[in-house]
Amino acid sequence: MPYTIEVEGLRKRFGNATVLDGVDLQVQAGEVFALLGPNGAGKTTTVRILTTLLAPDGGTARVAGHHVVREPNAVRAAISLTAQEAAVDGMLTGAENLRMMARLRGAPKGIADDLLERFDLVEAAGRRVESYSGGMRRRLDLAMSLVQRPQVLFLDEPTTGLDPRSRRAVWDAVTTLADEGVTVLLTTQYLEEADRLAQRIAVIDGGRVIEQGTAAELKARIASEVLELHFADRSQRIPVNGPDDVRRALEAHPDAERIELHQPSLDDVFLAVTR
Amino acid sequence: MTASLTFVGRSLRHSVRSIDALLTAVLLPVAILLMFVYVFGGAIDAGGRYVDYVVPGIIVLCAGFGSASTAVAVAVDMTTGVIDRFRTLPIPSGAVLTGHVTASVARNVVSTSLVIAVALIAGFRPEVDPARWLAAAALLLALMVAISWMAAAFGLLAKTIEGANAITFVAAFAPYVSSAFVPAESMPAGLRWVAEHQPVTPIADSVRALTMGTPVGDELWIAFAWCAAGIVVGRAAAAYLFRQN
Fold first, then answer.
1. Looking at beta carbons, which residues of chain B come within 8 Å of A87?
2. Cβ of A91 and B14 within 8 Å?
3. What keywords is this UniProt entry annotated with (chain B) (predicted)?
4. Where is the domain boundary, A213, A240, A262?
5. Do A246 and A159 fall within a single domain?
6. Which residues contact B211 (CB under 8 A, 6 or more apart)?
7. Is the Cβ pair B82, A105 closer than 8 Å?
8. Do both A204 and A225 map to the same domain?
9. Contact criterion met (CB < 8 Å) for B13 and A73
10. How does DSSP assign B115-137, residue by residue?
11. How buried is A199 (Cβ within 10 angstroms: 0-12 exposed, 13-18 middle, 19+ buried)?
């Protein structure tokens, strides 16, 4: 079955620094896929290549069936990008930003009002965006990506730096889009976000995909449980498989004051696979 | 086409809303005009009435200076995330630059008209000949388009807003070492050579000859050639840099 996003051996260098060292990804139609990794892992570079903003040095990438280097306009017609930095025009009002995008996308004008409503920006519609809060900018940014429903939506760290309320608004929007059949590729440093939104997750570090699967698969892959040891001044989490591991861990840490047994979280996966 | 028009509208809105930039673009040329006519004018002997000599120079300065602000506008775009949104749209690349350049020319037409209006009040008495005025207007328009494209390219090259501002100084000072304000013959040998070979001189001389009704020679074609070269080079450089960025 053809994938909506298909990436093979993607490579990119900036000067002497290898940023992508052979990234492989397959994202199915209608799926929410999370690219999870620390700062500098290559998440943004991957997104920039997939959205035609950057040419790769090697490897191939197809989005919505089109080659990102050879058919950039066909890719652009199928995608929308919400980048890390809110891509809004501060000198225009919220409504003007949306109307501008509608004209550029050839979408009906009325869509601007619908989106203002949907993203709770009706009151701020006539104000210049430079006066918006970070959360409002982000909501407008997302709305601007949706003047025409994209086949694939790229979200590069959509909730970094947002307050909990705005974060929830972004999450709700992603869930709604996924229900409507939009394929979403999002990057995040937040495991909770990946766990909550994505059907499948790729952990990326040092320019390579080091783990890929559903949240449950990734968690199961490191251990069946995680033992949390609490000391007087700190705590430590150790992946364990069965009572023998627990016994060994306790013998190695006789000063532990209290213990808990958890299901592995994505944090455990993240710490176990990234170095 | 729709994309370019949309961006023209956007850039025009920006122009009207950046009050400080607008005041600089409109008031500074008028202030310079008044300064040259009333402060320096009495002491400068350019042969004939100085106001008639200097106004064409001020108009050229104003066109150059105003167009240079395009560099800053482009640099602002490139340093904010909004450009990535435009680049991921299925529209001709560079439509956003067309918007900046068109708005820049529109701004300059307004400020140049204002300078001419003030100049007329200050005693500027040009020859009334529609054909010559039309030729002068065409030359000024070509100059505005050329400097705007060069400035757009510079704004793409500059990386920072402060860097982009530098071209404003070049555009603001180049006219002083030309025949715009004083005849080139009055300068020391080195400067005179520069003044006689840089583009501002044939452009200022042509506008002066066209408005004052004196004979127009080869300098008009040289002036147009400089503008055409500026448009071609500036536009090609801007398109190249926009793709590279």
1. 80-85
2. yes
3. Cell membrane, Membrane, Transmembrane, Transmembrane helix, Transport
4. A213
5. no
6. B55, B56, B126, B127, B132, B133, B136
7. no
8. no
9. no
10. HHHHHHHTT------HHHHHHHH
11. middle
Question: Which residues of chain B neighbour A90 with C-beta distances below 8 Å?
Answer: 80
Same domain, A166 and A238: no
Radius of gyration of chain B (CA): 18
Cα–Cα distance measured from residue B53 to residue B45, given in angstroms and rounded to the nearest whole number: 10
The three-class DSSP label of residue A211 is: strand
Residues of A in contact with B84 (CB under 8 A): 51, 53, 81, 83, 87
> How confident is the model over B2-46, as pLDDT tens digits?
899 999 999 999 988 888 777 877 788 888 888 888 888 777 777
Domain membership of residue A241 as a residue range: 221-273
- Residues of A near B (Cβ–Cβ under 8 Å) read 51-53, 73-74, 76-77, 79-81, 83-92, 96, 100-101, 103-106, 128, 144-145
Same domain for A174 and A118, yes or no, is yes
Q: Two tokens at A49?
A: 């290549």
CB–CB of A104 and B89 under 8 A?
yes
Is A53 close to B87, i.e. CB distance below 8 A?
Answer: yes
CA B62 to chain A, closest CA, distance in angstroms equals 25
Length, in residues, of chain A: 275
Q: Distance (Å, rounded) from C-alpha B129 to C-alpha A122?
A: 55
Q: Which pLDDT does position A85 carry in this prediction?
A: 83
Listed range (A45-59, A208-222, B117-131, B162-176) with the worst mean pLDDT: B162-176
Asked whether A12 and A49 are in contact (CB, 8 A), the reply is yes
Minimum-distance CB partner of A87 among B6, B10, B84? B84
Do residues B59 and B66 make contact, with C-beta atoms less than 8 angstroms apart?
no
The CATH number of the domain where A75 resides is what? 3.40.50.300
**Residue whose tokens read 């709604």:** A176
Dihedral angle sign, alpha carbons of residues A196, A198, A204, A209: positive
A91, A97, A155, best to mutate vs chain B, most B CBs in 10 Å = A91
Distance of residue A207 Cα from the nearest chain B Cα, in angstroms: 22
Are residues A88 and B82, on separate chains, in Cβ contact within 8 Å?
yes
User: How does A136-161 read in b/e, with b if 16+ C-beta sit within 10 Å?
Assistant: bbbbbbbbbbbbbebbbbbbbbbbbe
Integer Cα distance of A76 and B106 in angstroms = 31
Residue finishing a domain among A175, A190, A213? A213
Distance between CA atoms of B210 and B195, rounded to whole angstroms? Answer: 20
- Contact (CB<8Å) A85/B81: yes
Find the helix or strand (DSSP H, E) in which A237 lies.
strand A235-240
ipTM: 0.83
